[in-house]
């Protein structure tokens, strides 16, 4: 029996239904990915830890009244590092969640198409 996608409230108060099974909520209330490459997960966690350090460095730079252009350069570096994590997550989402939903067809595929268009729009700014 095919599972039907149900809308799930997201942080932005928009209703989103993944349709790939990822709309199942976890104990913390968030959705869970259908599949995650363990190597990609480890790379992303390492990147995020590095980014966390960069942000702490930015706080210190601001606290020490460092030259504005130097702070802005570091901010650009953090932006690019976050974009790299986003690209990796998008690749995983397409490879696992989107593929599962589109193969399933019907409302799952339609929900996924809408979600992908929304993701591309939000993250292309």
Describe it for me?
The chain has helices at residues 38-63, 68-104, 106-123, and strands spanning 8-9, 15-16. It has 125 residues and is mainly α. The radius of gyration is 18 Å and the shape is elongated. The protein contains three helices and two strands. The protein has a two-stranded antiparallel sheet. A hairpin with a 5-residue loop joins strand 1 (8-9) and strand 2 (15-16). The chain has one domain (8-123): Metal-sensitive repressor, helix protomer (Methane Monooxygenase Hydroxylase, Chain G, domain 1, Up-down Bundle). Residues 1-20 have low confidence and may be disordered.
Short synopsis of the structure:
It is built from three helices and two strands.
Which features would summarize this protein structure in a list?
single chain, 125 residues, mainly alpha, Methane Monooxygenase Hydroxylase, Chain G, domain 1, two-stranded antiparallel ribbon, 2 strands, disordered N terminus
Question: How is the secondary structure organized here?
Answer:
Elements: E1 8-9, E2 15-16, H1 38-63, H2 68-104, H3 106-123
Antiparallel strand pairs: 1-2
Helix pairs in contact: 1-2, 2-3
